[in-house]
Design goal:
24% of the residues lie in helices and 40% in strands. With 97 residues, the chain is an alpha+beta fold. Strands 4-5-3-6-7 form a five-stranded antiparallel β-sheet, covered by helices on one side. It has a two-stranded antiparallel sheet with strand order 1-2. A hairpin with a 2-residue loop joins strand 1 and strand 2.
Length: 97
């Protein structure tokens, strides 16, 4: 069962954009902010086997817009999008989307 953050009775689901380069993560985060997409830089989960230390986390509702922005740029180090799913208090999995 999915357990996410709840705001006013609405479950908040998140996606992370994973890059192989820290500077691309930082640049993409800034571009998303400039386009009105709230996001945060987070440490890339070790489970994803990526050496880059930063990923961009955003609300799943914004996924379509984020994909459009990604496709308009040149991000050769982009790896993939992963949905964050918490399956228990101590276990989180990442599903490629």
């Amino acid at each position: 069962m999915f357990k996410g953050s709840f705001t006013k009775g609405v479950c908040m689901e998140y996606v992370i954009a994973v890059f192989l380069n820290r500077s691309h993560s930082q640049l993409f985060s800034k571009i998303l902010h400039s386009k009105g997409v709230p996001n945060n830089l987070i440490s890339t989960p070790r489970d994803l086997g990526v050496s880059c230390g930063l990923s961009v986390k955003f609300n799943i509702i914004q996924l379509s817009k984020v994909k459009q922005i990604l496709n308009c740029g040149s991000y050769s180090t982009f790896k993939n999008f992963y949905k964050i799913v918490q399956i228990s208090n101590n276990k989180t999995i990442y599903i490629k989307v």
